[in-house]
Design goal:
The chain is an alpha/beta fold and 263 residues long. 40% of the residues lie in helices and 25% in strands. It has 7 helices and 11 strands.
Amino acid sequence: MATRGDPMKISAVIITYNEEDRLGAALESLAGVADEVLVVDSHSLDRTAEIARASGARVELHRFEDYGRQKNFAMGRASHEWVLNLDADERVSPELAAAIASLKEQGVGDGITAFVVRRQTFYLGRWIRHSGWYPDRKIRLFRRSGASWQGRVHEGLAVAGRVAPLAGDILHFTYRDIGDHVRRIERYSGYQAEEIVRKKTRLLYLRLLILPPVTFLRHYVWRLGFLDGFPGLVIALVQSWGTAMKHMKAIALKRRPPAPVAS
């Protein structure tokens, strides 16, 4: 438990790759929030590391394997027990910054090891309020001694102990445009296909037929994506396409002939 006699110090941790156009705003939003800012960069080809260093952040280079492993490495390199995880395309809102400042002043309640925060996404010119994208609750402030990132893509944080809500939003300036959205879904689908094969998921052909339209309906109808206008329609369509893509890739992986055994 953090008290006035035992101050709560926070390491903000960001993993990056070619984020020169977005990282600066993320770092600015951490002013007065974090006692340390650590950027773990996957050998960017642009000015990402230079921008991070100029802001006063500590920069470490580490080869990227997958999102879970990269975030675990970054968490392990943090100097303080409390870690605030932020992505390069995210910002700490003023309300969230105030809530964290209050937390640091008043201390953390007994048994609390992590805080969950709402995330609000800006996409195609508007804030998304539905489509399954809000409130997108994420555990982002936590004790590193009781936490572990799990998953290769769309990674989640497993924590031991009580998780409490924290006021304010993380502001998410996600895909730069529709093309960026599609390209990232394409990249993620490869990881997801490997996971499907690893888990020996059955009935892949049936899933390929049924799940894409179900995904569209889930985002556009059941999660009220139609209220988000054109961006809501795009979200539903791209998510449906991503669902089809990962299952097609999984089927292709299973049909791949085994590698020849070296004699």
